[in-house]
Amino acid sequence: MKVANESPGPRVYEMKVVLDGSTPAIWRRIRVASNVSLARLHRILQATMGWGGYHRHLFVVRGRYYGRPDPEGEVYDERQFTLGQVVRRAGDRFTYEYDLGDGWIHEVLVERILPPEPGPHTPVCVAGERACPPEDVGGLYGYYEFLDALQNAVFPGHERALEWIGGSFDPDAFDLETVNRRLRQLARRRHKVRTP
Q1: Contact at 8 Å (CB) between 103 and 97?
Q2: Is 63 inside a domain boundary?
Q3: How deeply is 54 buried, as exposed, middle or buried, from its count of CB atoms within 10 A (0-12, 13-18, 19+)?
Q4: Residues near 191 by Cβ (< 8 Å), separated by ≥ 6?
Q5: What is the number of structural domains in the chain?
Q6: Do residues 144 and 61 share a domain?
Q7: Domain check: are 185 and 165 in the same one?
Q8: CA distance 77 to 68
Q9: What is the pLDDT of residue 86?
Q10: Does residue 156 share a domain with residue 84?
Q11: pLDDT for position 22
């Protein structure tokens, strides 16, 4: 029997995701259902930030590591845990690291926990600033070196940086509609997989 004031469905976590050490900050604000697995949250964060998903990743929540399980048992299987199981309160923080070589560390803050929404309205990005750094640029140090080379024609490596990125790159660009289109495509792919 359902309690009268209990809301059906998963709660919605509004979270701010900041690329640690980025100045000015590269960030996104997203809304995600509390019942998504951490494996799915990884794919959502990839689509939200603009990464390609080519590299390993980890979640670190209160000193526990979640990701692809390892033989030593030090990393918990991210497929077995939901966001709502590992993070329970507004104000909680955790870390998402993508590309363990380049070390893209994202600080994630749960800003608000909202009541369930009718219909499939999550995940969604509601705000953000600045472009995601390119894959394999060498972490933040490599990224800022790349931007220096790209923006200064007399900088050593300027032509090579232009060629590598395909001609242009705007570090201040952020397109909310493009991010949400990627999130909708991700949701559609998930729905197709579940349909018999």
Answers
A1: yes
A2: yes
A3: exposed
A4: none
A5: 2
A6: no
A7: no
A8: 6
A9: 97
A10: no
A11: 96
* 23 assigned to some structural domain: yes
Helix pair 176-194, 38-49: axis angle to 10 deg = 150
Over the chain (196 residues), what is each successive 10-residue block's mean pLDDT?
53 97 97 96 97 95 93 91 96 96 96 84 93 94 92 84 88 96 87 47
Same domain for 159 and 135: yes
Q: What is the pLDDT of residue 8?
A: 65
Beginning with the edge strand found earlier in the chain, give each strand of the sheet holding 27-33 in spatial order: 75-77, 64-67, 57-61, 93-98, 104-114, 12-19, 27-33, 124-129
Q: Supply the range of the domain harboring residue 110.
A: 12-130+174-194
Residue-wise burial string across 3-33, b where 16 or more C-beta atoms lie within 10 A, e elsewhere: eeeeeeebbbbbbbbbbebbeeebbbbbbbb
5: in domain: no
